[in-house]
Predict the structure of NTR domain-containing protein.
Amino acid sequence: MSFIVHAALFLGFVALSQACSCMPQHPQEAFCNAGFVIRAKVLSQEVEGYDRVIGMRILKTYKGATALNKTEGVRFYGSNQGSLFAKVYTSKDGASCGLDWIKNDTRYVIFGRFRKGKLWVSLCNFVQDWSQVLKRQAVRVGIRRFYGQNCDCQLALCHGRDCGKLKGCASTHLSPRKNPCEWDHSYCVKNSKGTACSWYETPKYKECMANHQP
């Protein structure tokens, strides 16, 4: 993957201004930390005070379905009540970590959180155009299946009580620039005994590792 694409992905997680800074998270770690994960089409946007309210049609829920359906601003609509509409809240601008770049009539994968009975998302969450996710097979498969099954694997560095997860995938510099193979082409999975974790070696991962040998 080109440096430009990596830089764009990295900016989704790292400081975009002095007022908004976020530590990078592997998509799997972001999935496990999220309250909900959805694929949705943006229908509308409006600013209410300090917030931006994004109207979305939820196309697929990967995590948090039960709680999501009970959240304020979520309702079924359409002739057969077969479509699910949601209001997703974010800060109104990027300086306060808001999604001010999101576009109407575009499909996104969104990792968000529940806050005071509403759906919230910020620049520190994983939010990506679905067309880009389709190009990252490991991320797509991870969202659909493997991320949720392996949330007890430790991906980020930890200290003390935060180190109760299974070891094997944590990296000192887990970022899209320093670890592009793990970031784009792999996911961390438990072994058959459930005692440790390791990066799953997809064909793209093996190819990437071969091209990044020192």
Notes: The chain has a mean pLDDT of 87. The chain has seven helices and nine strands. Residues 110 and 127 are 5 Å apart (CA to CA).
